[in-house]
Amino acid sequence: MDEFIKLLNQDYELVQYRIKDKAVIFNIQSSKKELTCPFCGSKSIWVHSIYQREIQDLPIQDRQVILLVDTRKMFCKNPDCLHKTFAEIHPFAAPRAKKTERLAKNIIHTSTQLSSLNASGLLKGENITACKSSICSLLKKMPAIVDKSSVTKVCVDDFALRKRFSYGTAMVDLGSHRIIDLIPSRETSDVAKWPAAFPNIQVVSRDGAAIYSSAADSHPDAVQANDRFHLIKGLSEAINKSKLQSFVEGILKDLKAIKNGIIYSYNNGLAEGSVNKIKVIKRIMYGRNSFDLLKAKVLFHELFHVEFN
Ligand SMILES: [Zn+2]
User: Which terminus of the chain is more exposed, N or C, with fewer CB under 10 A?
Assistant: First the structure.
């Protein structure tokens, strides 16, 4: 059994285990004698007290797995440290988390394909206890999964949060083809501020909408490209409706971006495909959830799509 625990982490050992109803309970502890104070970085071997944390892990043999982890409260004897004591940190679970990180990842993966309520039911069948609200909070607490500095070429497009009432904007990485960010607005001022969080943007491709001309405001050197698809679509609509005059006026206002759209081969088809994905995920969620949750589900969906397929 000790080997099982070593698979979780090399530094942990089994104290004892028992089977209770449909669960296997492992009491484990770290074999490290010396721990590092998270506040000042100094080492400590002085134990103040020991308590047990109950952390759920991936099921085995069709049974739920509960880890009872001996957790030391340590003295920090560094006179310059602001804390007298600190709690042992376990590398496989976030502080105060009730689930191991590998279980949390499994739950999140399941819940991006389903509503949180249905995910909870499916997980129960796999001997994983995760109620709807704990799935929602896992999703919302997710770490930032996009390395914003690696993003250089993006396209943006809007999507309906509530059709005819409210809209959001999606940003897609033209390199990885992944949705990398969503904001709950398509207002010029919000869209203009947004790409500043991505320090190395060089290209912003967008549809004909003038509101998105502000999307590159924070990166004055970035190339703005008005994608060809929308240009040609706009032209054919204008011809059909005999509105060529206003079409030409629109082009003159946005001439540079339109030229770039013709020179470079960026197009917003990717953003449009992404908007469809958002629609599907929104439908799965029954439209009852918050924007934060939608964003978490979409970004995780994209992450797992790349990782697992
Ligand atoms: Zn300290």
Answer: C
Phi, psi of 282 (to 5 degrees): -60, -40
pLDDT (tens digit per residue) in 45-75: 999 999 999 999 999 988 999 999 999 999 9
Single-letter amino acid, residue 172: V
Backbone torsions φ then ψ of 79, nearest 5 degrees: -60, -25
Distances (CA, A) of 172 to 49, 166, 227, 280: 50, 20, 14, 17
Q: Map residue 168 onto helix, strand or coil.
A: strand
Report the pLDDT value the prediction gives residue 195, as an integer from 0 to 100: 80
Ligand 1 centroid from CA 73, angstroms: 12
- pLDDT at res. 197: 84
Total residue length of the chain: 309
Task: Give me 77's structure tokens.
Answer: 């004897």
State the Rg of the chain over Cα: 26
The pTM for the full model equals 0.72
Q: What is the 77 CA–ligand 1 centroid distance (Å)?
A: 7
CA of 92 to the centre of ligand 1 (A): 22
Closest-CA residue to 299 (of 120, 146, 136)? 146
State the distance from the centre of ligand 1 to the C-alpha of 49, rounded, in angstroms: 16
Other C-beta atoms closer than 10 Å to the C-beta of 238 total: 17
Tokens of 255: 């001439």
- For the range 92-95, what are the long-range contacts, defined as Cβ-Cβ under 8 Å and sequence gap of 24 or more? 92/8, 92/9, 92/55, 93/53, 93/55, 93/69
